[in-house]
Design brief:
The chain is built from eight helices and 20 strands. InterPro entries: AAA+_ATPase, ABC_SmlMolc_Importer, ABC_transporter-like_ATP-bd, ABC_transporter-like_CS, Mo/tungstate-bd_C_term_dom, P-loop_NTPase, Transp-assoc_OB_typ2.
Length: 351
Amino acid sequence: MEIELKNLTKSYGATKVVTGLDLSLDKGEMVALLGPSGCGKTTTLRMVAGFVDVTAGEIRLKGRDVTHVPSYKRDCGLVFQNYALFPHLSVFENIAFGLRRRSVRPPELTERVTKVLSMMQLDGLAQRYPSQLSGGQQQRVAVARALVINPAILLLDEPFSNLDAKLRDSTGYELRRIQRDLGLTSIFVTHDQSEAMGIADRIAVMNKGVIEQLGSADEIYNRPATRFIASFIGKANFVPATVISNKEHIVELGGGIRLQLTSQPLPADGTAIDVMMRPEHLAIGNPEDAGLKARLEDVTFQGSTARIRASTETGGDLLIEVPGTSLPTLPSSGSTINLLPDPNSTRAFTK
């Protein structure tokens, strides 16, 4: 394992920010720490970097115990959220800073900086200063500065949060390509699920200082382990239901609609649960179909999709997403629609 975190804990007085966290990364793997503000993801990253002392637990990098090793001896490249570029230094000197601290000789220093400038598509900007760069260029300089020292581990603390959406996508793709080409093991902190799902090999979803689920983007989206993850990742509808037969995996929704949920075990018969349905997993059926009756309240065109808001007879509100091309055929607002859930894409959570 390239990175191993064992029972990692950080407390400030009586307040635990990270509790008993376990995480392992293979060589060349990128794992995203994803979660809302205050969940402990940045604190975890800063403990790995050596900027925050560990209350309990162990950090091993490339098999070496570095739990109490100073940050400058951990061989980590770190990209900060605010880039932390030196305003009085040129792009070249910002990138060369770590090499000069390591007493790299001038010919090698120039060669390595020139190489990483080309890798990050910063050719021609070497003599500019940070104030003369765009946000995307500053971000690439920060990444170049982390890469030029040839770190064993790359740590990224919300590096795209200051970029607009289009630039964030393109820069994230480029960073991922470079990380794969170099075989760097990386931990990437973000609160943006789209970033995590688009860049990381695996995603560790954190909540209140613990990892609630670790898996691929497909796993955490389609098979969320907890109600928190189901609601935090993507969009979700929660419909009250009752377990009719846990042996046959049958639940009953309001209005007497029954579904067979074969994708997971169910609690005992008679248990009140909430059934989670993604908006794209609800189809509009024919009036005679046995489905979930709802009143269409509003339709919004989103380009590739049309977003429908509807209210059920039991009082719950639902969000449905259908292809944008179906917009002309949709019923008008106020109409009764018949919703057909996909039982293979539905998850149940106890209340």
